[in-house]
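task queued by scheduler; priority normal; single chain, no ligands, no partner chains; default sampling; output format set to structure tokens
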Amino acid sequence: MAIKPRLDQELKNALKAKAANRVNALREILGALVYAELNKKDQPSLTEQDETAVLSKLKKRHRESIEAFEKGNRPELVAKEKAELQVIEEFLPAAMSAEEVREMVRGAVVELSAQGLRDMGKVMALLKDKYVGRADGKVVSEEVKRRLSEPAGS
């Protein structure tokens, strides 16, 4: 596991500094990674890709919580979730730019010779491992849909 030793050290530092939100986020990450490792039957340890997928799920969960707390007018919980989200994002790979997403989608469409929206599932399946943790699935999905909806000459 590539990030577990770093997480352990960060947790020790956060405990010493008494940074409650950071401690909570680091414990959540460690717990999620251990849980994923226990549920993985085919290999004893997680790959870097598996770790990124776990962190992406946590990131998504925190974003949804932030949205819900904003709707519920709970600014103190929004601040807590945002602080924990920042910690999670520290361990994720750098986000893809809009141009990188467009290039990735264009390459996949060409590779699969995708013709229309009926091929969207195939394109998304090919791209899944490439964007996990680096781009939002909704953004990638919208770009694929836009690309497949264009007339053939574009």
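post-processing summary
- The chain has two domains: 4-90, 98-149.
- The helical segments are 4-17, 20-39, 48-71, 75-90, 98-112, 120-131, 137-149.
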